[in-house]
Amino acid sequence: GSKHWTEEEKTELFRRLMGDGEDEHRNALNTAKNSCFRKVGSLPARKGEATSSFGWECAAEVFGGKKTYQAFKGCYECNFNLFKSVHAFETSHGRASNPPVNGVNESDRRREYERHLQLARKGGCGIDNISARTIDHWHRTGWYDLFCNR
Fold this sequence. Notes:
With 150 residues, the protein is mainly alpha-helical. The chain contains eight helices and no strands. Helix 1 (7-18) packs parallel to helix 8 (143-149) and helix 3 (33-42) packs across helix 5 (69-92). It is globular and about 40 Å long.
């Protein structure tokens, strides 16, 4: 399976795992993550299948069977770790789920994020090596809100 994930593929995966109306999938991430991803990566599509056919729908319809169990799990886990850094940054200056720079142009947003990053690092916040660009991207794509609401 393809190892590279496009922004659109990640968005679709995150929405199907954590979006509105996906309570069963969100719960599975918390209680049986490996089973959740195995279903996602390996089960074939079944016509007329009702209920929580996330695995079948996602693997077959959305990704055309191009993604494996390891790809789903790896993408989610890598991005969950990145989310934790973005969230640590956001909570370090009291702005969780409320980007400090809405409504301004990209370069000004990134400059403002960089300023906040420097303050967070000086304050000892555990934000690893995230960049202003990454933080901005997570807010613009809606990924930060999806993970926060999970």
